[in-house]
Amino acid sequence: MAAEEQDQSDLEKRIIEAFEVFDHAGNKSIDVREVCTIVRSLGCCPTEAEIQEILVAVEDQETSGSVQLDKFLPVMKQIIQENRLQPASPEELLKAFLTLDPENKGYLTKDYLSKAMMEEGEPFTQEELDEMMAIAIDGETGNIPYEYYINQLMVRITDENVYELAKKIKPPETPNKPTISQLLSNL
Question: What is the C-alpha to C-alpha distance for residues 146 and 134, in angstroms, rounded to an integer?
Answer without folding.
Answer: 13
